[in-house]
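Archive entry. Fields below.
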Amino acid sequence: MLLKELCMLPGLTGYEAPVRDFIRSRLDEVGIACRVDRLGNIIAENPGPADRKLMLTADMDEVSMIVTGIESSGWLKFGITGHLDPSVLDSCDVLIENSVSGVIGVKPIHALKREERGKPVPADALLIDIGARSREEAEARVQIGAKVTFAPRFRQLGCLVSGKAVDARVGCSVLLDLLLKKPPIGFTAVFSVIGRLDGKGLKVGVNQVQPDAVVQIKAAECADLDTVKPERQAAVLGDGPCFFMKDGGTVYDIALARRARRAAESEGIRTQLYRYCKTENYDIHYAMLAKPGADWLVMGVPCRYTESPVAALSLEDYRESVRLAEMLTRFLTKEEA
Amino acid sequence: MQLIKDFLTEACAAPSPQGREFLIKPVLDRYFGRYCSDYACTGNESMIYSMPGVSGGARIMLDAHIDEIALMVSEVTEKGFLRVVPVGAVNPCCLVAKPVRVYGREVLNGIISQAPAFARGKGDSVEFEELLVDLGLPPEEVREKVPVGSPVLHDRQPFLLTEDMITGRGLDDRAGIAAMLECARLLAENRPESSVYFSCSTREEGPGAGALSSVNQIRPDLAIVIDVSGGYMPGKSGPQQVHLGKGPEVPFGNRINQKLFERLKQLSAETEVPIQTVAAAGRTGDDTEVIMDANEGVPCALISIPLCYMHTPVEVVSVRDISQCGALAAALIKSLDGPGWEELLCC
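PREDICTED_STRUCTURE:
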């Protein structure tokens, strides 16, 4: 499992090179043929027989920020690429251009009026502190446009692993693990770019591969906490990988997902249905335009605290997800279009 | 300044939540032990390192608080998460998506956060009741390993942002402890006549009982309190802003002995240690409050270290400010050598 290495690398939307290079090296090491297209997607071939053109895909990029201004005081202004809940930015550690550490600090409680306590600061009022106390001092170390991620960290807690980009890279990690096993069925693997915004990389990947069936592997955001009613929890960590039923713009083939779940069950693989839809997610909605009529299955590894420095998943769910991905290659080649 | 950096690198990685400050004692022993020959512990577990002076010299207590802001487990939920309450003033906004360590029967890694946006109710305010600590363990194991009342601290290692700026959990008030250490180092090379007691006081974020127990034990003639104060950051308004890197803050006002304050100003000019003087109209909100009116009353001087983002995991201070604070305290103590120090304290 190369999840930790993948998560510790910076892979911002549009700047996925460090992650791409890492994945390419791993594929080269075991002799898996791959190329990089004009947008930066990796397109790799797992050799083997297949009755249908099968594509498995995962995004490489993570939610990130970019420095948009340097104040005269030495603090930095920033913008966000992708979607995240700004409440995770309060008092967090960031890393700029993979080398300059910064903190996003806020006014202390003593300086707040009573009614201001508990109210998250809006993202456009937050600033990054790199320890500079003048514009000159800041400009000597950071430029406008500098790329910012959460500070890389990977921890184990109980049966979970947690860290920056765990949710963003789990799809890549599962797909890479699958390729390294050299499963018997032939398929094309696309590690795509710009997943965090609207899936332009995925659409271009589908344009080129023109698959009959696609499996996208990503994280499935869970809210399985005591503070959330069961009907709003979406998925439960530990209950196995999820099948999504829809995204923000389109409904998937639910009957196909149910058949896939039954096939998984017959092989002793636990799965669940994802019972909520995140409305910002439109990547399949656009990618479906590239090959109308293709079968789509979207599977997610259950993940808590997505798009935060502490995204967490269960190693047991991870292992089930790799088994499920392999099973789906066999399942989909038998399915009729 | 290397001493300060080395000390903070260890101290900001060690735990000292209110009520369990003794957990950090090995670090304090190792550093203060280099310069102080004596040690005593009070009933409220304040740790006092001291260097004896000559007879007739003043008894001077330095005070910095060793307890840090923490959370405390109030409940284990059905699913095996933890609910927490703050120990000290904490804005729950700084507790979203943060790595923590839980000090139960064993030390466990955890994550504190709230439900994701799609599952939250209306409104965006963060509340303690909605925050949960995730240990990644089944509920039975959590109940066995984490008793109610266990402290929870941020899991964050300190590090330097620049050569001078350091960030770390608990710089409030390890910055003050570091300044006392620097003072001890200077005095060890240049021994004063006064007996000097460095009190690492407990429970400042609570009732201040640690500092009071130290005063009762030491019976000092005067006290020099070293705490942190809110440093300037963009968006912070109001008069008398203090800036990191421009020297320690030296307040004056009803809490502070006027003559000690004037002496500090004079020493600042003489030793070229820059200070930022601030008029403190009301309370100063630190151990001065409990020391000043203990027993027959104790004249206090207060030197504060400007600090950004107080009571959050990402506190930032300037190492040079700490060094200058320690130097100023040492200069004040040395200036009380010889006869006549008693007159300084008369009104």
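CURATOR_NOTE: The helical segments of chain A are 3-8, 17-29, 135-139, 166-181, 200-209, 254-266, 283-287, 315-334.
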